[in-house]
Amino acid sequence: MRRLTSSTGALLSSLAAATCMSARVCSSSSSVGAAPKKPKRRLSPQLDASELLKSIPLEPEAKAELSTAELERKVDEWSKLTPEELDALYKQYEAEESAESRVLQEDSLYQMDVSLKTRASGAVRVFWTDVAVVPFDEQKYPGWFAVAVDGRKVKAFESQRVLALPNEELALACAREYAAQKGHINKLLMPITDLCSGAMQVAPQAIQPRIDYLMTFYQNDNCYFRAAAIAAKQDEMITPITNWFSRVFDVDVPRVLGIGHPGITPQSVEKVREALIALNMNPYQVVAMCVVAQFTSSIMLPLALFNRVVDLPTAFAINRAEEGHNIATAGMIEGYHDIREADSVVKICASATAWQLTHNISMAKCAELPRSFALEEMETPY
């Protein structure tokens, strides 16, 4: 049995800093059974709506494209198909929609909303005094680890299954989150445990639907677009990412100023999808990728972050650039912008940490542990 020590702090320094930031707006209350009050929202309007009209192209030659333009092109393409081709296309779209809907219905791992329930609905007091990393099951599953509080193995969030972790480093990261809890358990401040709990639900056959889901961000990736007022600043930050992505994935990356259609070709879509499949991501990496894609509306930014093309501060600066500009000019909604920013920082840091800690975990290793294994320990979940 290995005890949790302060040396794990170096492993998770960026995540710890982000968690401290989030704690100011969503930390647990120390009183018994008391949930924190919902912060009041205060709107600070500084927006002159007439200024928005100046940014809308009104001339006949304007480059902006209505949202119906793509639909009109699709209808024109479909009208040229034979009945057999049209039927095959319909079945293809129906299969894709069915696969994506099935994934979204079976679990909600992209937003990690397992931990978004209010504390009042089921707050659990922190009762333990000792946190340790222990073997999950040395005889049946050697090389797997669990987190134990006062000698009892913790369960995955929203599950009766013991939280099984594929290496000791990831187990230490989860143990650190348990050791940091005070008063009542605040799952918002346990993002790595949350992510690992979700990854336990992802079977190998569920990887492909998630890659298809990630590809929905590629069509209108946030890294394509620039706001006119801060375009030069965005170019400085984003160009290294787009150059890297274009070189590695062998595709053209458009640059759209203001409102416009990126014009991503089907060939590029297929090329990027095949490249994502070739990455052979394990469940932990797939969930981490989906989480960051949700928060950034991009697949280029998380891929660049995970491959260390950019660091975390740069990734945050890119992600908040346009909204930060809008807040500076139009005002911030307290209790919305600040809380959302803190949550995104914590979740993105956790995802980047989980990706790095599991990059050498193979699918064969993940397949060692069945998704529906029986449990010997059925004590009250915590």
State the helix count: 15
CATH class of the domain at 203-367: Mainly Alpha
Structural class: alpha+beta
Q: Can you tell me the CATH topology of the domain at 203-367? A: ATP12-like fold
CATH superfamily placement of the domain at 203-367: ATP12 ATPase
Helical fraction equals: 40-55%
User: If classified by CATH, what would the architecture of the domain at 203-367 be?
Assistant: Orthogonal Bundle
In the sheet with the most strands, the strands line up as 1-3-4-5
Spatial extent as radius of gyration: 23 Å
Number of strands: 8
Nearest-integer average pLDDT: 77
* Low-confidence segments: 4-12, 23-35, 40-45, 59-66, 109-120, 372-382
Organism: Bodo saltans
Family: Belongs to the ATP12 family.
Subcellular location: Mitochondrion
Protein name: ATP12 chaperone protein, putative
Folded structure, characterized:
By secondary structure, the chain is an alpha+beta fold. It has a domain of 165 residues: ATP12-like fold, CATH 1.10.3580. It is 50% helix and 7% strand. It is built from 15 helices and eight strands. It has a four-stranded antiparallel β-sheet. α7 packs across α14, α8 runs parallel beside α11 and α11 packs antiparallel against α14. The chain is globular.
